[in-house]
Write a structure and sequence with these properties.
It is built from 4 helices and 9 strands. The protein has helices at 19-25, 73-85, 139-148, 155-170; strands at 3-7, 13-18, 29-37, 43-48, 59-60, 63-65, 92-102, 108-119, 131-137. The chain has a 4-stranded mixed sheet, sandwiched between helices. The chain has a 3-stranded antiparallel sheet with strand order 5-4-9. It has a two-stranded antiparallel sheet with strand order 1-2. The chain is globular, with a radius of gyration of 15 Å. The relative contact order is 0.22.
Amino acid sequence: MADVILVNSKDFPIGTMEKLEAHQKGKLHRAYSVFLFNNQQELLLQKRAATKYHSANLWSNTCCSHPAPGEHLTTSAQNRLLNEMGITTSLQSLFSFTYKTEFENGLIEHELDHVLIGKFNASPLPNPAEASDWKYASFKEVSNGIKLNPEHYTFWFKEIYKRVFKFILSN
């Protein structure tokens, strides 16, 4: 696995660590989450592939990952979006936040997550190693889905979707 950028609470880089080791030790590291919306203000969701080492088979935002050491965050996100979903589009930074959660397999997600948004009005071409399914969903559909079946969604997505939709629906 690739290295991630370890950061302090102000997102200042303090080192690097192999990705799995960072998740085993719960080290704070830089990440990003991409949210793409169509013209109807529907979010493009992906269902994570069954082979993912955590949060497999769960619905989440359009894509997410970690920039490599020395890699610009937005460039990394655009490259990942192309690799995971077959999409090329421009992105803008919305906000960042820190979260920490432990998964059933003992891995600890401790990330300073940069949320990026963009527009996309077509069908993606998902990489089956990354995403097993996709759909567009409105705020109401996402909210109802999380209310009825919270276990079907990733932890970080449940933490941030309302804040992202609030921005989209007010602009």
